[in-house]
Amino acid sequence: MQSKRILITNGHPAETSLSRALAEAYAEAAQEAGHEIRLRHLSALQFDPDHGYAGYGQQKPLEAALKAFQEDVLWANHIVLTTPMWWGGLPAKLKGLIDRVLVPGWAFDPRQRNTLGMPHPLLTGRSGRAIVTSDTPAPFFGLFYRRALLRQIKGQIFKFIGISPTRMTHLAPASSATAETVDKWIDQMRALGRKGI
Length: 197
Fold this sequence. Notes:
The chain contains six helices and seven strands. By secondary structure, it is an alpha/beta fold.
């Protein structure tokens, strides 16, 4: 198995969370298997999450934490994100990280368009995985919500900037999960981390 350079981002804004436990289990197993890892916790990143302008004609200077995060993305050839689903979407601070970091000219080039009119992605050559926890049971999540958040992360964020293929993992219901269930999820993360997928 070829070793990978893996950036793991715990996208939960709190210092302790299930998302953090999942990210750390993945990271520990990946490192033990010989992969290079960088683990980032959203709670430790200090930045203004508000883009603050209409459009991208103006951009705020990136804080040190965001510059370092961009360096991590460029270093990695596999990107892993753990996040809860809140109100059908991403936590506000995580969305702010995406808004501030994945800017045109760095993550995608709007001046170059494909035949369908989509901007040219600039972060190709990387694979990804998103691990999403929610309280919405999987059947309801799929049937009524049509896995909307998973489709957003995979297609409108990762693939949009060139991260492909991206695999998705949905774990639910999270808040009422028993200790036994959480242990199974942790084991699942370790198995993914060992394989670097």
